[in-house]
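Sequence in, structure out. Go.
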Amino acid sequence: MRAPVTNPTLESKRLELAQRFFKEYYASCFWHLRPDLVVTEAMLPIIVKGLRTHGGKRGVHAAAQLID
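Output:
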């Protein structure tokens, strides 16, 4: 489990990236969620899991960017 992010700028960038991945991978990974969903910090584990499970190789690499 990763440590909580203390840098607000880093957290903001991670959420922006997660939102971009949500939109990019919506059809293959997140079709069961609302298409207009706004990603929050609490949703990051769901986004990472979806990317890893249904995003293929590119999705696994995208998920890694969210947890580093």
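Check: The chain has a mean pLDDT of 91. Helices lie at 8-24, 26-29, 44-54, 56-67.
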